[in-house]
Amino acid sequence: MSVSLPDWLPEDIDPTTPSVARIYDYMLGGFANFEVDRTLADGLARTDPDLIATTRAYRTFLRRVVTYLVAEAGVRQFLDLGSGIPTVGNVHEIANNIAPGVRVAYVDIDPVAVSIGRRILTADSRATVVRGDVTRIDSVLDNPAITGLLDFTRPVAVLMLAVLHVIPEDAGPRTIVARVREKLAEGSYLAISHGCSDGPRHLVDKINKVSQSTSTAAVMRSRDDIAALFDGFDLIEPGLTDLPRWRPDEVPDDIPATLALGGVGRLAPRN
Ligand SMILES: C[S@@+](CC[C@H](N)C(=O)[O-])C[C@H]1O[C@@H](n2cnc3c(N)ncnc32)[C@H](O)[C@@H]1O
What we know:
Blueprint: H1 20-27, H2 35-47, H3 51-71, E1 77-81, H4 91-98, E2 103-108, H5 111-121, E3 127-131, H6 137-141, H7 144-147, E4 157-161, H8 173-183, E5 189-195, H9 201-211, H10 223-228, E6 233-235, E7 241-242, E8 260-267
Parallel strand pairs: 1-2, 1-4, 2-3, 4-5
Antiparallel strand pairs: 5-8, 6-8, 7-8
Helix pairs in contact: 1-2, 2-9, 3-4
S-adenosylmethionine binds at residues 20-21, 24, 58-59, 62, 82-84, 107-110, 113, 133-135, 161-163, 166, 216.
């Protein structure tokens, strides 16, 4: 397939293989996506008509989590792992609107996400974007661009939002989170949102199957397996919930269920 690319995009992207970052961007109404991404997203949306609502639920969960962490928990540093294409509602914008001076390091494996992120952040010394692979977490945590911006002797909130469900079991998602935990100082936080396999079987199977054609296939997990990712953290209220039920701005009577759970944990005291 021949695809003409905007000249500001890096040369090493494959516009013929759908990418999770670009599909997500498309579903959020962004511009950084290609025909292959839109075709696959439209196919998924036919399988699950609520998929767009679920995608937005991920993004609004991010907004509420960052708002809580800055406004109520007093966090001033963020490490956003699997940060996505920064087109709609970014962590540094949400955080700095509440408390100017918050530092944010974004990490993503997708070259389009990193390229657009760098363009947006060129003039901002309090935020950086790094191309990195969370399955190689030590190289991410030791990246000088990150250690130069974030002070890991002080509290950091680590966001792993809508990313661990594209990390396969053999890459050791619990070990990855444990390595992150070891790096963190007292008063740090971990936020996770994750596709949950406890929903209707036919939808879960379909999403898993369709996602096989992307550069990073989905691995939905059970509630128990998602809860286990918070090992070493104390979940703050209301715990691990369906995304729209986590500290909603308002509580409608009838919140549609999503196939996704989210929560925020505070680093538990180490013995
Ligand atoms: C669905 S988006 C989520 C974006 C954002 N965290 C949010 O919740 O709105 C998932 C992102 O994870 C990135 N990703 C997937 N596998 C990754 C990996 N191994 N390392 C780093 N980023 C990864 C994708 O490129 C994509 O941008």
